[in-house]
Amino acid sequence: MGDPAGRVPLEGLHNFRDLGGHATADGRRLRRGRVYRSDALHRMTAADVQEVRALGIVSVVDLRAPDEVAHVGTGLIDDLDARYHNLPTRPAVLGADAPSGEITSAPERYLGYLSEGPGSFAGLITLLADPAHTPAVFFCNAGKDRTGVAAAMVLAVCGVPDAAIADDYARTQSALDAIRAASRTDYPADVKAWRNLSPDMAHARAETMLAFLGLLRERMGGWPEYLASLGVDAATLHAVRQSLLERPGDDDT
After folding, report:
1. How far apart are CA 81 and CA 213, in angstroms?
2. Which residues make Cβ contacts (< 8 Å) with residue 213, sequence separation at least 6?
3. Disulfide check for 63: which of 15, 105, 127, 146 has CB 3.0–4.6 Å away?
4. Which residues neighbour 76 within 8 Å (Cβ) at sequence distance 6 or greater?
5. pLDDT class for 203, splitting at 50, 70, 90?
6. Phi-psi region of 55 (alpha: psi -120 to 50; beta: other; left: phi over 0)
7. Which residues, listed in sequence order, are joined to residue 83 by a DSSP beta bridge?
8. Across residues 151-165, what is the average pLDDT?
């Protein structure tokens, strides 16, 4: 099931993808079927639930803000029989409580997630360090921005090079039109705002992710340094690699 880009075909979702298969700088690769990224799981149909359950998902990590969850709910997520974790990357995104939008650059906005929602990133990487919590899926609304930054963290911690991380981010581009069409039903008041997005926020371009990773290193040192500042130690990152990586030819069962 899926395609060469790792996408799992579903009725209500357009960006549900397996992070497995990416090669690391030391010759290992991410195991398939361990970690998935997605757009908003609340839009799953009943048929989608059956497809996702077949993947053996045991952990669902919702990166959406509490006001988003209150606005559109969690849909059929409970039917997955997986443990649900709400680990928001931002405190709010709707109405008067949302940030004013003074940051227009996507790389700067992505860097802002690290200070707005540190518990999200520390919580996700700690969860993935325990094999009992995988297979796991994490998601936001489009599966592009917040999910893209979380995916970048997971891939970088595992040793995947920047170019491959940026390529994974850019794979969302082909799904954006379908995702925005679905989002208009959930967020009709935001349609005008979407038309006014800066080009790097309106698209999923590899250079945007590369610029973010550069900013991260310049201002925070890198993912290990950022996570260490949150209390995530080297042993936890080692456990993530042990759980998620394999050598080509290893038995992935």
Report:
1. 35
2. 152, 156, 162, 165, 166
3. 146
4. 42, 44, 45, 46, 48, 49
5. very high
6. alpha
7. 59
8. 98
Give alpha helix (H) positions in the chain.
46-53, 66-72, 106-116, 118-128, 146-157, 162-170, 176-186, 191-195, 199-202, 206-220, 223-229, 234-244
Q: What length is written for the chain?
A: 253
Domains and CATH numbers, the chain: 17-240 (3.90.190.10)
Is the torsion defined by CA of 229, 232, 233, 234 positive or negative? negative
pTM of the entire predicted model: 0.93
Distance (Å, whole) CA 252 – CA 241: 14
What is the average pLDDT score of the chain?
A: 91
Residue that has been written with the tokens 């790792």 in this structure? 6
Burial (CB count within 10 angstroms: exposed 0-12, middle 13-18, buried 19+), residue 48: buried
Cα separation values, 44 from 12, 13, 47, 50, 193, Å: 5, 6, 8, 10, 25
Quote the tokens at residue 90: 């931002």
